[in-house]
Amino acid sequence: MIKNKKILIVGAGGFIGGHLVDRLLKDGNSIISCDIKPKEYWFQDFENSENHYSMDMKDITNCKKVTKGVDYVFNMACNMGGMGFIENNKAECMQSVLINTNLLIACNEDKVSKYFFSSSACAYNKTKQQEVFIDGLKEEDAYPADPEDGYGWEKLFSERMCRHFMEDYGIQVRVARYHNIYGPYGTFDGGREKAPAALCRKVFNAKKNKDTKIEVWGDGKQTRTFLYIDDCIEGTLRLFESDFSDPVNIGSDEQVSINQMIEIIEGISGIQRLEKIYQLDKPKGVRGRSSNNDLVKKVLNWSYNIKLKDGLQKTYDWISSEMQKEGVNISRFTKS
Ligand code: GDC
């Protein structure tokens, strides 16, 4: 367990960053939290952390303000979202390269000993994801390089930047390739939401409005593996404490189609089966994507715990309670 350390978390106002701050505070660390978002857009905001709101790490002077005297840095920051966002904002996604690069330069100057980079399954070669229900992607399947355009290229480039900083300057790096992380305190509306949150919202709305139909992007047959946030945090911290510096999948191996996931959410909400309106012109991403977990089991002796059905139950409960709040400020869930 990491404790009594001074840790900088960049992207702390976001979904995974917020949960990481929570856990590392509970474990007895001193946390500096930064995010480009102003205070009112942070998903979680902890009083016992040193919080820097509206701080843009694409500007290296900001990086240098917060890396002094820090033991560890977790870079959880990037301009991102689900397929609806990354397919239509490639230039914005690629500019996150500045965050990682500037942070590494500042960490090197300030002799930070260990650095974490949150990469993505979008780094994997697209041609290996053209069928539904594919074999899980192994770490070596990122090469030859042909990742998701824009967002995936940034992740792959930044992974390599981490490796070269370790080789050339000796900073220890750890890199996780996250496979569609979901759970409470994340975006569920406004354009950046990923499929689990979007579909929980749509099913909740259908129930509330007594609709019998929902809109689904694509034909619903596309597949993914989704990982609940608590498992993501546990895997991240175990990887960080390991001595393994190459990229590792952090994902589940419970491969489902979007149609199967909707069926689970319908069961959770107690609604009758909905008629699906398949929107074939909406962003679909790869046809099939799933995480091979052999390497993570080998190097961390760890596997995810939370079944999709149980994670979706917690996610649906949180999203439905947010949506029932009077005058909920939905914009909090839409900003980068
Ligand atoms: O957005 P996402 O979760 O991203 O979409 C998964 C699949 O669900 C897509 O084929 C999409 O078309 C389908 N889908 C159906 N209806 C909807 O209402 C909907 N909203 C959304 N968003 N999708 C719908 C993600 C990236 C992330 C991250 C992860 C890592 O790609 O967007 O930024 O890096 O990958 O695994 P997905 O899984 O394609």
Mean pLDDT: 96
> For this structure, what is the CATH class of the largest domain?
Alpha Beta
| Intertermini distance | 31 Å
Structural class: alpha/beta
Relative strand content: 15-25%
Query: In total, how many domains does the architecture comprise?
Result: 2
Q: Would you report the number of β strands?
A: 13
- Look at the structure and name the CATH superfamily of the largest domain: NAD(P)-binding Rossmann-like Domain
**Proper CATH architecture of the largest domain:** 3-Layer(aba) Sandwich
What is the H/E order?
EHEEHEHHHEHEEHEEEHEEHEHH
Q: Can you tell me the residue ranges where pLDDT is under 50 for at least 5 consecutive residues?
A: none
Cα-atom Rg, whole angstroms? 19 Å
Largest sheet: 7 strands, parallel
Q: Shape from CA axes? A: globular
The total of helices stands at 11
Helix percent reads 25-40%
Give every kind of bound small molecule, once each.
guanosine-5'-diphosphate-beta-L-galactose
Characterise the protein shown here.
The protein has two domains: about 200 residues, Rossmann fold; about 100 residues, UDP-galactose 4-epimerase, domain 1, CATH 3.90.25. It is globular. The chain is about 35% helix and about 15% strand. The mean pLDDT is about 95. It is built from eleven helices and 13 strands. The strands form four sheets. The protein has a seven-stranded parallel sheet with strand order 3-2-1-4-5-6-11, sandwiched between helices. It is α/β, with parallel strands linked by helices and about 325 residues long. Strand 5, helix 6 and strand 6 form a beta-alpha-beta unit. It binds guanosine-5'-diphosphate-beta-L-galactose. Guanosine-5'-diphosphate-beta-L-galactose binds next to helix 3, helix 7 and strand 8.
